[in-house]
Amino acid sequence: MNQLKGKVAIVTGGSRGIGKAIAEAFARECATVIICGRKQDRLDPVADEINGAGSGGKVVPRACHVGKLEDLQQLVESAHQEFGKIDVLVNNAATNIAQGPAIEMDDTQFDKMVEVNLKSTYRLMRLVAPGMCDRGCGSIINIASIAGLRPQFHGLLYSMTKAALIMMTQSYALELGPKGVRVNAIAPGLIQTVLSEYYWKDESRYAQMLASQPIKHLGQPREIAEAALLLASDGGSYLTGQTLVIDGGRTLSSM
Fold first, then answer.
1. Of 63, 65, 13, 10, nearest in space to 40 by CA
2. Does domain 8-246 have CATH number 1.10.3720.10?
3. Catalytic pick from 122, 158, 172, 199?
């Protein structure tokens, strides 16, 4: 307990899945956690649930479309006005609307994937990082994917955006490290979320994926949240520019 006491965090895509699990872990460790998503009515029950659990922290729900610059600006401005600072930023919001053969992807799908998976992170980091640099401390955590390390079949645009996110993480880490700001990424494998239903709801597809994975269970959001907690806390003080692969061993070359 108390690993994040006095800290203020923003978690995008915080209404479900990995984002919700991270908010729960951060609140458990006494942080003030601003969760955002497009719809307020989906965020409010999550905040009520976590706050009602009696953790030492607090969850604050804020509607925000990460694809809109004005929404991101308002999110950051309101956080500074209400809490005075942002110590931790978790860029978790993502979409995967463009599965299929690479040659069948179109410009609309390309633009949407870049807008949500990549440009939103770029914009939020640009908005939040200066304040962290001024204070000489801060942690930014980008939720990538093993699809950013190895190409996902029929997943060109998802893999492309996640690969770019990993390089963005490294570039920011190189520049912001001397100013006291750590920037890391987490690359989950198959995690049981709505975003990955395509893979784990189909029994044959699920069995095929687990067959090449040493750890024989479906990853859970809390398993990603605990890694995010390490990166957000002082326990990760010597970690920057890294991509933590949490995939049950699926990317091991010998499998």
1. 63
2. no
3. 158
